[in-house]
Structures are given as C-alpha cells and as structure tokens.
Write a structure and sequence with these properties.
Strand 7, helix 6 and strand 8 form a beta-alpha-beta unit. Helix 4 packs across helix 5. The strands form 3 sheets. An 8-stranded mixed beta sheet has the order 5-6-4-1-7-8-9-10, sandwiched between helices. A 6-stranded parallel beta sheet has the order 13-12-11-14-15-16, sandwiched between helices. Strands 2-3 form a two-stranded antiparallel sheet. By secondary structure, it is an alpha/beta fold. The protein is built from 19 helices and 16 strands. The radius of gyration is 23 Å and the shape is globular. It has 2 domains: 256 residues, 3-Layer(aba) Sandwich (Rossmann fold), CATH 3.40.50; 206 residues, Glycogen Phosphorylase B (Rossmann fold), CATH 3.40.50.2000. The mean pLDDT is 94.
Length: 474
Amino acid sequence: MARRKLIVVSNRGPVSYGRDDDGARVARRGGGGLVTALRALLEHHDVTWIASALTDEDRAVAAESGGEPMPEQTRAGSPYRLRLVAHDPLTFDRFYNVVSNGTLWFLQHYLWGLAWEPSFGPEFRAAWHEGYVHANEAFAAAVVEELDREPQAAVSFHDYHLYLAPGFVRERRPDVRMTHFLHVPWPEADYWRALPADVRRAILQGVCANDIVGFHTERWRSNFAQSCKALAACSTQSAVYPIGIDAAEFDALRESEAVLREEAEITASRPELLVVRVDRTDPSKNIVRGFRAFALLLERHPELAGRVRMLALLDPSRQALAVYSDYVAAIEREARSVNERFGTPDWQPVDLRIDDNFAQSVAAYKQFDVLFVNPVFDGMNLVAKEAPLVNRRDGVVVLSENAGAFEEIGRWTMRVNPFDLVEQAEALYEALTLPAGERRRRAEAIDTYVRAHGVDAWTETQLADLDRLSTILS
C-alpha cells in the first residue's frame, strides 16, 4: 500500500494532553469512534491531523508549538503529525455547544418538536457568526498552511462541526482534493428548512465544496442530494461508505484482564435472561422510551418477573448542555419508576449504571441474551456491530429501523420502530424466547458480516474513490 500525504481534520483529535499524578505531561488516546475508525490512516499513510485544542493542557501544547504540527505516534508506533487549533473560550462555546451540538446535532437526528423548537434569536446569530463561522475559518486557515507545506496532500474533513471549512479552503486552493465524511444522519430537505435560510445555504454550499461527501447509508446520501438540489442549487459527488470495526481489537479485548474482571461481576449477579443496552446519555439514543418498552414487556409477561433484567450501561455525554443533564435526570426517574413498580426485595428489573467504563461495556457485550438498540435516529451505531462480535450466548439484536446499521445487518435482527412501545416490547419478548437454532443462525450471520466488512476497507474505499475522481478531473 502506497503511503500518501493526507490532512485529516476533525474537532476531536487522536490524542488529548493532560498531567499525571507527578505533574508530567501525558498524551491520552482521544475518545469517540472517529479516532478508532481513522487509526488505519495513521498506520498506513503520511498524515497530519488538525483538531481543536480541547483541554487546558492541549491549549498549552498549542501555544508552545506556535500552531505548528507536532510529531506524535500511535500505540503501534506509527508516526503522524498533530496540529492543534486553539479557539478562545467564548468562540469555542458558541461553535461547539450552541451551534454544533445544541443545534446541528438536534436537527440531524430529528430531535426537534417543531411546534416549540427551535427559535433562532440574536443569541443564535451571534453564535453562528462569531462562533461556528470563526472556528471553521480557523480550521481552514490551518489546512491552507499545511497545504503550503504539502501541496499534493488530500484533505479529509469529518462530521458536522466543519461544514463551512471546505468552502473556505476551496476559495484559496481551487485545485485541492477534499473529502468530507458525515458520521451523523442527514435529514430530509424539509427538516432543514427549520434553519434560517442563509445558514442552511451556507452549510450546503460549504459541504458541496468537497469533491466527495461520504455517508454511512444510501438513505442519508439520497437525503443529502435532495437537500442540495432543493435548498441551495449546488451539488457534488456523494457515496456510501458504511463504517466497520476492528474485529481483531475486539477479539483481544474480549479476553483482556479488565474485561474478564468486569464480566465476573456481571455473571455473579445476573438473572437467567439479560437485556443489555450500551449508549451515551444522549436524547437521540431513546433511552427513556426503551425503559418504558421494557416496563410494558414486564406488564404483559408477568412470568418474566425475577428472570430478566435490563443492564443499562450509559456513558455521560455533554453535561455542560442543560438539555443533556435534564435527559440524564429523566433516565434516572424512568429507571427508578420501573424498579418501584415491578421490583421485589430479591430482584430489581433495571440495573442502571452511568459511567465511562469501556471494559464493563465489552463484558456486557459478552453476556447479553438480547441487545437493545433503539435510537430515534443514528448515523450508524457501532454498538450494534461490536456487541455481537464478542457475544458468546447467541444473543439477539433488537434494532431500530432508524439506525444506519439496520441497512447492513437488519435482516438478522428484530426490527423496531423506535417510537412504538408496543412493537418494542413485543420484539423484546420474541428475542428472549426465540428458539436456540434461530438465535445461533442470526448471531453467526452478523459475526460473519462484521468481520468481512472491517474498518480498513472503510478508509481505503474512500481514498480509492478520491483517486479515481482525481484521475478523471486531471
């Protein structure tokens, strides 16, 4: 495989800096699926990664480097360069909390009830112009400086934080080759009309400055093409690249000491049947409705009392935003309600754990009889792929039809409408009572598919398409 020069651009970088107990600077692997997904790029290509300085120590590192890229390496020893963009705190808050996560995330996951929200007043306009636009200009300026060093490099943008940056780069470097992968759903054109006209037009024109825009599913890709035509009269190449996972990594994790320790704790207290969900505490994950569907299951099937439990392992997410902290409170209330209604001194039907504990999540993956994945909408949802890969109980996946993963593995899951509590309760019951042979057939089919469609293929297919397009246009 030829090593090519690439500039990767994302809000969150592959490492974040901090201090250890002795006060020494340490680099910790960045969180999120994006870092894992792009690891193959770092190992096989000559990469400069541009990302936001997120921690105090990140900002100190950025100041010391004068904004220049710094040498780093992966755990496997592969070298790359990291350039951190330090935004002033107010700009970053407006860019990240108000526009990216407070607005675009909710739009792209269909989370607004349009009778009441959104309402775009002067505060949003300030956040857009003085936060999102400024941050994207800063990213674009860093990209252009790196292109001055490496004019032949291709640029790979990622996600909804960076919709405007490709347009700013294109204005200054018309011949650069750029891709943009969107890890989130893309809603239909009419839903985008909730945004002010100038904002949605700027977003679409910025994304269309790329040579290729990638999505997890045909559903999201076709919505994008429709939106471009209907709302901004612009277009670009778009394609479907469903993200995979690193099967070897999860095979190793499954037998790691940390996972085995967590698994021993789970098996010591588990009932006969275990329903598992692993999510972030994000409204798009539909956790509250999931608990209500589980309560309906217990109401309709009292014979399951004492025999089944839902283990909900939730990673706290974006608690600086009131809507997220409010959602955590709603999750806790709903779990408590289910336990008060159905629980006994010897049995609690819901075991809710809100913590960042990946080893515990992998241990739960191994132990589920039913995996419950019911997001309102999700770009992909890697839990639906990770968990079956390490499970050893022929567990059944109950999967929302609005998760991107459904387009790939849905035929081997129990399909549910994430808004239909009755359907979800019935699917949970069917999954819990499915004959052993059918359970095994479905589990083996998902395992085979996931192993055959790994993360390396995801990155290389995108680069191959960019090469083909470059050849056509040159």
